[in-house]
Amino acid sequence: MRLEARAARQVVLPLPLAGEGWGGGISAREVIMAEENTPTWKVPSRLRANARALRRNSTDAERFLWSELRDHRLNGAGFRRQTPVDNYIADFMCHTARLVIELDGGQHFSDDAEQADSARSAAIEAKGFRVLRFSNHDVITNRAGVLETIAAAIAARAPTLTLPRKRGRGQEKQRS
Q1: Element (H, E) at 29
Q2: Is the pLDDT of residue 7 over 60?
């Protein structure tokens, strides 16, 4: 009888993960993942190298704006700079608000460049982003206005968190 009680109390430990634990199992290299497809977000190496070069050689307007956008400084929104989107490189991108900010220098004001910019904006908007365009001159001379416009766009597009309501003093939790 005691032998049966002892057998009933025996605890069975879970098996260790592959490549860990007591040995005797298969190594982690032998474990086959369910999906071995290449990721769909893979960025071509040439586009990635161009984005890195643009980060190193940023314009004055980009540096001014980046100093205000980095480290979640504008309404707590996180931005990335010189980020590949489709076949283009966006100057600044906020993923949570689905917002792209483009800064245009003097070369963007010709007819051909404006057509190219509109095609670029259409391709980025097709990915679900809203594109805001500012001239370098606006960023340098009217930084506060540019930041207000960006903050308004973030507030309109960023998801809002629903937090539980706080109980006021003297209000008890109702029990059912």
Answers
A1: none
A2: no
